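Input (structure):
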């Protein structure tokens, strides 16, 4: 595309749009209709320039014009309780449901890898010796040792807040860093899996695997599911950079990135519930079966939430993206 010719052909339309925007509410009916038409045409011009002949100054001017025109045409609105309800009952579960082909294999492979690492450590004393000295290992795995007292080492409220913050940061990093070709997500996931595998291996070697599982399952099911969802979504985001599909890479990445941002908010709420369980249920005096039952119930509730509400919303066309009026203009693509 010859940019100079394109600008010459359409500059008058952009100037006219800017003039109408300066008029504000003093527009006549015909001028309001003209503003809408010019806004639509300018949005298309912006998309063409961004994809064919990006020019920083021209792109900045048209972006500002389109944003001002969109605000004038659609009006501004504030997010309210209705938006929050729609997000929690449709947008977030739909986004998790849509990415299930990424996070379910991630969960299965990660769990399998943690079990393999645990078996390897348990079956090889020399590997255990490389992790820590025998006295330190006994201190960690003995009854009343570090693995057990970890969950009651701080007041429940502060411990739950600390756990929630750490897990939310890990989930957010998976979502944000996924755009870097998936590699940071794989590393973060591996570190989490390695820590789980080490715990399984050391406690199994000490003959106390049942105690370890009784401590990890109540909160770990929901917590790990949230981490796997974040990792799977991050991997999906990274794959979008590699293969954007029928859309331009910029458009596809923006769409998936907006959905991932919403996922970060939703997963923070899920991890908050997991943190409450870890802070108040895991170290409690409840019988092991009761603590495990609470963990399983929380996990089943989340899966039902995703597959019932999320599946229904996804089939209705909800992708977890922002509302159409809040998106940037996009060029149509072939089916």
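Output (sequence):
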């Amino acid at each position: 595309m010859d940019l100079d010719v394109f600008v010459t052909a359409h500059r008058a339309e952009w100037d006219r749009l800017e003039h109408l925007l300066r008029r504000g509410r003093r527009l006549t009916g015909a001028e309001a209709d003209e503003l809408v038409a010019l806004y639509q045409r300018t949005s298309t011009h912006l998309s063409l320039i961004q994809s064919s002949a990006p020019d920083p100054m021209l792109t900045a001017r048209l972006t500002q014009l389109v944003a001002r025109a969109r605000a004038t045409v659609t009006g501004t609105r504030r997010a309210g309780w209705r938006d929050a309800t729609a997000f929690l009952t449709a947008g977030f579960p739909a986004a998790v449901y849509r990415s299930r082909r990424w996070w379910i294999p991630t969960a299965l492979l990660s769990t399998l890898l943690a079990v393999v690492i645990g078996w390897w450590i348990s079956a090889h004393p020399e590997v255990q010796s490389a992790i820590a000295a025998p006295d330190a290992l006994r201190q960690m795995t003995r009854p009343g040792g570090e693995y057990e007292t970890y969950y009651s080492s701080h007041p429940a409220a502060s411990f739950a807040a600390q756990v929630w913050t750490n897990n939310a940061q890990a989930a957010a990093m998976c979502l944000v860093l996924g755009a870097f070709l998936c590699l940071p997500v794989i590393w973060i996931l591996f570190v989490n899996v390695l820590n789980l595998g080490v715990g399984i291996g050391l406690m199994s070697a000490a003959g106390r695997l049942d105690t370890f599982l009784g401590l990890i399952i109540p909160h770990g099911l929901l917590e790990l599911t949230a981490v796997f969802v974040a990792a799977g979504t991050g991997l999906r985001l990274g794959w979008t950079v590699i293969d954007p599909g029928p859309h331009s890479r910029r458009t596809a990445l923006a769409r998936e990135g907006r959905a991932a941002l919403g996922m970060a908010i939703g997963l923070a709420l899920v991890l908050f519930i997991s943190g409450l369980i870890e802070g108040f249920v895991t170290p409690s005096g409840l019988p092991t079966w009761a603590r495990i039952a609470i963990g399983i119930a929380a996990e089943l509730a989340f899966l039902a939430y995703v597959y019932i509400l999320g599946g229904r919303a996804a089939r209705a066309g909800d992708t977890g993206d922002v509302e159409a009026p809040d998106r940037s203009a996009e060029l149509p693509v072939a089916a």
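Notes: The first helix runs from residue 3 to 23. The radius of gyration is 26 Å.
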